TrEMBL record:
CDD domains found in the cross-reference section: WD40 (cd00200)
Coiled coil keyword on record: yes
WD repeat segments: 82-116, 117-150, 171-214, 262-303
Listed GO CC annotations: nuclear pre-replicative complex; rixosome complex
Organism: Brassica carinata
Source taxon at top rank: Eukaryota
Entry coiled-coil feature ranges: 401-435
PROSITE patterns (UniProt xref): WD_REPEATS_1, WD_REPEATS_2, WD_REPEATS_REGION
Protein name: Uncharacterized protein
Cleavable signal peptide: none
Gene Ontology annotations of biological process type: DNA-templated DNA replication; rRNA processing
């Protein structure tokens, strides 16, 4: 595996990429002035970034680059300016958050806009997928955090039953703009940390759907990174310091105070990323400097100069790529069509028979111990197909109807099983909380 650091800025400084081990700059991708949280790696082959509005005031486009070429390869022009951008781990989907509070979900291989929904009252500021890609967490300028289940969003049967609550959880305790969100790998028992300009970081329980603790800092927090060990997180402040916060402290003191800080920058910390190889933290700041920190010694071990003081670094990601060009399965569908590039992303959601509503594909985590179907058809969609076949009335359709009815039963059974698994896990978590509280 090759570990690469990528970074972008709000000025037109392109996208820089560096080999984390050697510190050598690999390639500078041209024509990029991105939003904060507007840069993402799309699988192992592409980079995508949402662009700031141009001089004419038209909606900012989404640009896509191949890893081995500096020029923009694909330009897409959504219906509105996209502020936050994220891709799932396999690079099969890109999700964008709009200035209106809407969220858009595209399939990369086809460019189809599969789903659009209203998520927040104000602009979406950050988006992050859960470790298994089944959940999407969004933050907004209005101070709210929302947790979305992709299966529920695409299942029209469930949407009809819970039309007013498309989100799994809503967290509204921040009083100002949400600046960053991270989520650990705890599955349904994961912890979510959100940062805000209100000078707090809040830790949320996914299983309980509530706030666990709020940590007050001496400065507004612009960026977060999570230690995979699950005990601490790192918070980049507007006062140029990187603070260390506790996730699971039982002490009232440590629930409201920072545990410590490390500082090397002269200006505000704007973005953070954690790298497990060597236990490193990468930070970017308003002065255009990227620093690599050894977390054991709390000292910087390497520095990358991105924009030489001309503008801030507002995005950093650590990308692990397979050496030798063994690209993942996300690339195969458009390769079969004779193109090495994905098409532009659609501006409008398709209607009628050509829509993908009712179907969602979720790629399971390679470490998942729960079987996940790679293709999930909603019960409502299957039921509609059965009705259409009944109207045709031929002998051939009878066989197909029997097959679909069996699939319908399987779909209902699978949905019930997932619901039961969720309730069982929730019960276990609640019992552990009660037992821990009585010790």
């Amino acid at each position: 595996m090759e570990t690469t650091v990528i970074a972008s800025s709000s000025i037109d400084g392109g996208i820089g990429s560096w080999d984390l081990k050697t510190g050598n700059e690999q390639l500078r991708f041209k024509q990029c002035a991105s939003h904060a949280h507007g840069l993402t790696a799309v699988g192992e082959k592409f980079l995508a970034a949402s662009q700031l509005r141009n001089a004419s005031g038209s909606s900012g486009p989404i640009f896509i680059w191949s890893w081995n070429k500096p020029q923009v390869e694909v330009k897409s022009f959504p219906v509105e300016s996209i502020t936050a951008l994220a891709a799932n781990s396999e690079g099969t989907y890109i999700v964008g958050g709009g200035a209106s509070g809407d969220i858009f979900l595209w399939e990369v291989a086809t460019g189809k806009l599969l789903k659009k929904w209203h998520a927040h009252y104000m602009s979406v500021t950050c988006l992050v997928f859960s470790g298994d890609d089944s959940l999407l967490v969004s933050g907004s300028q209005d101070g709210s955090v929302r947790v979305w289940s992709l299966i529920r969003l695409f299942d029209s049967h469930q949407r009809q039953q819970q039309e007013r609550t498309l989100f799994e959880h809503k967290f509204d305790e921040h009083r100002m703009t949400v600046t960053d969100i991270v989520i650990d790998y705890g599955g349904c028992n994961a912890l979510i940390v959100s940062a805000s300009k209100d000078m707090t970081c809040k830790v949320w329980s996914l299983s309980q759907g509530k706030l666990l603790r709020s940590i007050i800092f001496p400065s507004k927090i612009n960026a977060l990174a999570l230690d995979p060990g699950g005990s601490v997180f790192y918070a980049g402040g507007g006062d140029s310091k990187i603070y260390i916060g506790a996730l699971n402290s039982s002490s009232d003191y440590y629930a409201t105070q920072s545990l410590g800080s490390v500082s090397h920058h002269s200006k505000a910390i704007t973005c953070l990323a954690y790298c497990g190889d060597g236990n490193l933290l990468i930070s970017g700041s308003e002065d255009g400097v990227i620093s690599v920190w050894d977390l054991r010694s709390r000292k910087p071990v390497r520095t990358f100069t991105f924009s030489r003081g001309k503008g801030p670094v507002n995005n950093i990601q650590v990308v692990r790529k397979t050496i030798g060009g063994n690209y993942n399965k996300a690339q195969s569908s458009w390769k079969r069509n004779g193109s090495s590039l994905p098409p532009p992303l659609e501006k409008y959601e398709r209607k009628g028979d050509d829509t993908m509503d009712g179907i969602v594909i979720i790629d399971p985590s390679p470490f998942a111990d729960v079987p996940v179907y790679s293709s999930y058809h909603s019960a409502d969609l299957i039921n509609e197909q059965v009705k259409e076949l009944q109207q045709q009335g031929s002998a051939a359709t009878e066989i197909e109807m029997k097959r679909l009815k069996l699939e319908y039963k399987k779909s209902i059974k699978m949905n019930d099983q997932w619901q039961k698994n969720y309730e069982d896990l929730l019960q276990i978590v609640m019992e552990e909380e009660l037992n821990g509280g009585s010790d």
